[in-house]
């Protein structure tokens, strides 16, 4: 009798995970698609977003919504600027060589992580949600001879979690509009299609790279700001989002933004449902198994294109 209500709750929890995962993975996919750079430090940019959100909330004080709104703006901008600076000072100097960029971003990962540990500390610290009203989830069932609505039946979800889902969806629509409808998106797509031809037409490719690297990190930071009122800010919190983001972009197709979003929805929803009815460990095992199958039977990903 309670399978349906549990399924609804698990689906909503999975949708929250999928929303934040989609933001993080789209940032990673955008960087690879345009720059052909595998950013191992992407999870640490995610972590920085959560830590900066905590600092902003503590400094401003007052109503939680004030610090949260400020963090939504400040954290992605600061993290994006730091990522763009890292691109100019590190990746540009090694000429975006695939092997050396992996080593460089691993080094960047440890630098960010250890600096955060030295300044922020090892404690996990909460950020208060801007609003936390609870929404009762109704359920329909048979009552003797009548079919009616049972409310409340003991399960509810916070209004903030629903906000996370809709906010992430709005940001992803904005990313799509930027890529498809703006001059900046046109420059990014031209650089992605043919770097040498873009240079020949006078496109400032290195500036485009710095912008893309900053946007990718900013999206990860934005996802962390959205999730930190549900979880807690911790200097090691970037590990799992990085692994899940790689799983998503491999399944969806490296550099394919629609594929990344659909894969994030699949992984997030399946993670929420399997975690509720079975165990979180089984969800991670199945996601890893799916990656292995994709790599064997369709290496370019479900929505990617095979390169010559």
UniProtKB/TrEMBL annotation:
GO terms for biological process: amino acid transport. The chain crosses the membrane at residues 6-33, 45-62, 68-90, 102-121, 160-179, 208-230, 242-269, 276-297. It is a multi-pass membrane protein. GO terms for molecular function: transmembrane transporter activity. It is found in: Cell membrane. Its main location: membrane. GO terms for cellular component: plasma membrane. The keyword Transmembrane applies. Keywords: Amino-acid transport, Cell membrane, Membrane, Transmembrane, Transmembrane helix, Transport. It comes from the Bacteria. Belongs to the binding-protein-dependent transport system permease family. LivHM subfamily. This is Branched-chain amino acid ABC transporter permease. It comes from Roseovarius atlanticus.
